[in-house]
Design goal:
The chain is an alpha+beta fold. The chain has one domain. It has one helix and three strands, in the order βββα. It has one helix at residues 58-67, and strands spanning 2-9, 19-26, 43-45. The longest helix is centred in the C-terminal third of the chain and has 10 residues, at 58-67. The termini are close together. The model has no long low-confidence stretch (mean pLDDT 90). Bound molecules: zinc ion. Residues 23, 32-34, 36, 57, 59-60 line the site of zinc ion.
Length: 68
């Protein structure tokens, strides 16, 4: 079962909060489909992938839609 997991990305601008980027993981793997380690990131059901408003990883999106 796939799920979404967040990776917190440091902001380039110190006056802005760190960003969040969503990745796709299989089961409880620590590494996303794109190869990024997202261990410990917050999770959401994969069904939210289409509607989430935060930035999404393009590689994970491609890999996920190829699977679906
Ligand atoms: Zn990714």
């Amino acid at each position: 079962m796939d799920k979404m997991r967040a990776r917190h990305t440091p902001s380039a601008d110190p006056h802005k909060p760190a960003g969040v980027e969503w990745h796709v993981v299989h089961d409880d793997k620590a590494v996303a489909l794109c190869g990024v380690n997202v261990e410990g990131g917050s999770e959401r059901p994969i069904a939210d992938w289409a509607t989430v408003t935060d930035p999404r990883c393009r590689h994970c999106g491609d890999a996920y839609s190829n699977e679906a």
